[in-house]
Amino acid sequence: MAKETTGYKKKLGALGEKIAAEYLREKKGYKIIARNYTCPLGELDLVAIDQGTIVFVEVRSGTLPFAGWAEESIGLRKQKKLRQLAYYFLKEKKRETHVARFDVVIVIFSVNLAVQEIKLIKDAF
């Protein structure tokens, strides 16, 4: 059962990231420059450019009724990890002087995986 749940969560997460990338590109005008960027420290869901600002995007996906905890699930420990990953990315790409921010995209699905809501939180932390 745990493997089935883990597999479902991975598929849901991947679908959420795909939808979030499309939403940011098509509806918000972001330019996606990396998806699932990995380095020795971990992984960033999306890296984009929005009006000259490099944006590190954390995507949270889930089915109803999960909306309430999605925003709260990015605690101080996760924020610290994302900052470390972002710094690594900027250093590796020689963009340390660029302005950067962290956005969160929440993708909420119905039980049959129809998108119910997409919520963008700019400059989340």
Radius of gyration: 15 Å
Low-pLDDT residue intervals, each spanning 5 or more residues: none
Reported for the largest beta sheet, the result is:
5 strands, mixed
Q: Please report the number of helical segments.
A: 3
Biggest sheet, strands in spatial order? 1-2-3-4-5
User: Which percent band covers the strand fraction?
Assistant: 35-45%
Which class in CATH terms? Alpha Beta
What can you see in these coordinates?
- The chain is α+β, with helices and mostly antiparallel strands and 125 residues long.
- The chain is globular, with a radius of gyration of 15 Å.
- It has helices spanning 2-28, 67-72, 76-92, and strands at residues 31-39, 42-50, 53-63, 100-109, 115-121.
- It has a 5-stranded mixed sheet, sandwiched between helices.
- Strand 4 (100-109) and strand 5 form a beta hairpin.
Furnish the topology, listing elements before pairings.
Blueprint: H1 2-28, E1 31-39, E2 42-50, E3 53-63, H2 67-72, H3 76-92, E4 100-109, E5 115-121
Could you provide a short overview of the structure?
The chain is an alpha+beta fold and 125 residues long.
Provide tags for this entry.
five-stranded mixed beta sheet; 37% strand; Trna Endonuclease, Chain: A, domain 1; 125 residues; alpha+beta; single chain; globular
